[in-house]
Amino acid sequence: MAPTQNTVDENMQRSVSAPSTGATPAPEPSSLKAKQVKMSDLLALKGIPPPPPQPFVSLQQSRLDQIQAVFLAMYAPGIDKFLETRWYQEKARPQLLANVQLMAQYSGLIDAFDEPNVNDPTVSGRIESFEASVIWDTIRLCRSTNLSNGNAPPTQDPDLLTAVKRLEVFEALVTGEHLEANPLAPTSVQEPAAKSLTLPDQLQKRSSDFWNSIGYFLTLHDDEASSAKEIDDTLACARMLLDTCENRDVIYSIAIARHIGQRSADFPHSVPQPTITDEKDPGAKLYVAQRFLEQQASGKGTTQVIKRICGMVVRSWTVSRQ
Questions:
Q1: Closest listed residue to residue 91, CA positions, set 137, 153, 146, 167
Q2: In sequence order, which residues have a C-beta less than 8 Å from that of residue 177 and are 6 or more positions away?
Q3: Alpha carbon 249 to chain centroid distance?
Q4: CA–CA separation, 224 vs 143, rounded Å?
Q5: Residue 116 belongs to what domain range?
Q6: Crossing angle for the helix pair 304-319 and 282-295, nearest 10 degrees?
Q7: Where in the sequence does UniProt note compositional bias of the Polar residues kind (predicted)?
Q8: Residue 188: what pLDDT?
Q9: What are phi and psi of 297, to 5 degrees?
Q10: Residue 16 sits in the same domain as residue 45
């Protein structure tokens, strides 16, 4: 798996990623707790909402070809890289072509990229939000796929099921929701010993283990003191599985910001820079996670998907405190 190309504050990121040897401090009063939000609330990046849904129009073949080229070159690979799947590049194109509204959105976004005053902050902000909404609707294509074939049992497409479950985990993570059960928990089938796996299988297992740890984190309620150590241990486990993958750095940092940020009355507006060398300090973890995600959103992300997803995350911090 390709390592992340980001070199921003690598030493600091290692610091935020370091497992804590003690439990995170207990939550402050419940009035500080961030509220749960909807994904639709997070698409107005920097507070600038995307344009309303594009009207349905008959698209010329040249525009259809252009949409498919953009999807296959930019968004499908970016989403697959983020969710660590193959479904979007290999199987999602028919779902896109069948979605009239999303095709209209793609056409409108392509036109928006050609606007002459794109450097105007208001215009660029609106385009970023527009792109975020298109990316989110594209990610959700996995949910609109008909898993059933008549009266036959649901099609067990491993890539599709992985995409659906990881999307569920990501959405819960970024909206502040807790899950009753971990959709990515390993099956009861005994897995072979790691040493007997090929290298690709080992890498795949580490990917699955990382996502499983994030899914399990979302079943733990961090307003319960009895869960504090289990949460810290779970996040430490996720940290050990980052493997320099950009998407995992992002997801792990979201979890850190979610878990520790709600304990800070000033988050996200005024988080003082702590002593970065103190790897046990929750404030250091929060500071670096926040800065990392903000920089990813501002252009450091290596794909448009990462940039816009991080923009949604940054937006969530403000919306959840309103």
A1: 146
A2: 36, 171, 218
A3: 10
A4: 33
A5: 38-147+155-175
A6: 130
A7: 1-23
A8: 53
A9: -65, -30
A10: no
